[in-house]
Design goal:
- The protein is of the alpha/beta class and 385 residues long.
- It has 2 domains: 126 residues, Aspartate Aminotransferase, domain 1, CATH 3.90.1150.10; 248 residues, Type I PLP-dependent aspartate aminotransferase-like (Major domain) (Aspartate Aminotransferase, domain 2).
- The protein is 41% helix and 15% strand.
- It has 13 helices and 15 strands.
- The strands form 4 sheets. The chain has a 7-stranded mixed beta sheet, with helices on both faces. A 4-stranded antiparallel beta sheet has the order 11-12-15-14, with helices on one face.
- The longest helix is centred in the last third of the chain and has 21 residues.
- The protein is globular and about 60 Å long.
- The structure holds 4'-deoxy-4'-aminopyridoxal-5'-phosphate.
- The site of 4'-deoxy-4'-aminopyridoxal-5'-phosphate (PMP) has 13 residues, from helix 3.
Length: 385
């Protein structure tokens, strides 16, 4: 039986992306690869809304966690003060990362399932104490989406650099460097629709100027090195720091071309519709979503019925053809599961997913009438026709 992968990355890829992975590796310094790399960087700029200005895109071998490091550590010193908006597991990860470089870390920690209130961020930024703030656009552990546009309005008039972790958002949610974001990044395996192994992002002019005044704190994550590579590639001269992942960049470029063909706006609207159909089905089955109001287009964290064992539920769902992810927030990990709904997600995946949830709930002894979730989702999909 075929299984559908519905975890929040890696995701199921389009067939042309998979095909691109099977092409023999060409020289990383060939003209052919230079042209692919350049095109991929240009497309990255475009997806982050940063075609103009002094922004520099980057594509570096490594996962999203490398993106977290590259996008922050280059803009701070050992005595910098940083602010972390912590809406879940990946907010904790920023704190862990910063703790290696500075002792001055402050956090704003909304209660579980809540997005940050932008006015609280404004209050902090108005003190002008912070060198840098990080916000996780969509925390993959909770499915909560933060209001990046509003926060950018406040950060751009402060001295605080605004860094956005867009790992679980870029390609499925609206995000635009022009709002006033200084640095944003994602990883290849989520809504960008390529295999894992690349971090992708953009650093803006204000961040690069700050970087120029600071001493590098790392080596492989030193954006000065990668900036030189990106500029060289964009100028068609080429550049080398570490051997680029030729096959992955080739596959990423194909996936980015799929996104451009569909149109970013249309793609985000599709994600919006699919997530609302999915959530409607989930609510209809009597289940609760962790994100209280501001839920993501790309991932949903769903509480299981009281007393239902999450391991058994995930096993039953897999036996019914769909793979979900387990909970990541320690205190409630055994009480919820996560559904990734990004990339090529369409009505077929939504309905298959809800069907598998219904059957897994039934296998766990939870009384759900056959088709309850499916009907609710169909109603949303019908309305959109
Ligand atoms: N930030 C967010 C929001 C994420 O979802 C993830 C990965 N799930 C990361 C950072 C880290 O990315 P990676 O696992 O690719 O290192």
């Amino acid at each position: 039986m075929r299984e559908l992968l519905m975890i929040p990355g890696p995701i199921e890829y389009e067939s042309n992306v998979l095909n691109a992975m099977s092409i023999p590796t060409i020289s990383h310094s060939s003209k052919e690869f230079l042209s692919i790399y350049r095109e991929a960087l240009q497309r990255v700029s475009s997806i982050f809304g940063s075609e103009t200005g002094d922004n520099i895109p980057f594509i570096i071998s490594g996962s999203g966690t490398l993106g977290m490091e590259v996008s922050t550590v280059n803009f701070i010193s050992r005595d910098s003060k940083v602010l972390v908006v912590n809406t879940g597991y990946f907010g904790d990860r920023f704190v862990d990362l910063f703790s290696r470089f500075t002792d001055s870390i402050e956090q704003i920690k909304p209660s579980l399932g809540e997005a940050v209130d932008p006015s609280l961020v404004k209050e902090k930024l108005d003190t002008n104490e912070f060198d840098l703030i990080t916000v996780t656009h969509v925390d993959t552990s909770t499915g909560v989406r933060n209001d990046i546009k509003k926060i950018a309005e406040f950060s751009k008039s402060s001295n605080t650099l605004f860094v956005v972790d867009g790992v679980c958002s870029v390609g499925g949610e609206y995000l635009d460097m022009k709002w006033g974001i200084d640095v944003a990044f994602t990883a290849s395996q989520k809504a960008l629709g390529a295999p894992p192994g690349l971090t992708v992002g953009v650093a803006g002019g204000r961040a690069l100027t700050r970087m120029g005044k600071l001493k590098p704190l790392t080596f492989f994550s030193d954006l000065r090195k990668w900036e030189t590579v990106s500029r060289g590639v964009l100028d068609s001269k080429g550049g080398y720091f570490g051997t680029p992942n030729v096959n992955l960049i080739t596959a990423l470029n194909v996936s980015l071309s799929n996104i451009m063909r569909e149109g970013l706006e249309a793609r985000i609207k599709r994600h919006e519709l699919m997530s609302s159909a999915l959530r409607s089905g989930i609510h209809a089955m009597g289940l609760e979503i962790m994100a209280k109001k501001s839920h993501a287009n790309t991932i949903s964290a769903v509480y299981l019925p009281d007393g239902m064992d999450s391991k058994k539920f995930l096993g039953d769902a897999k036996d019914n053809g769909v793979v979900f992810a387990s909970g990541l927030i320690k205190e409630v990990a055994s009480r919820y599961f996560r559904i990734g709904h990004m990339g090529g997600i369409g009505p077929a995946e939504v309905l298959i997913t809800l069907g598998a949830i219904e059957r897994a709930l039934k296998a766990g002894g939870y009384g759900v009438k056959a088709g309850t979730g499916l009907t609710a989702a169909q109603e949303i999909l019908f309305k959109s026709d």
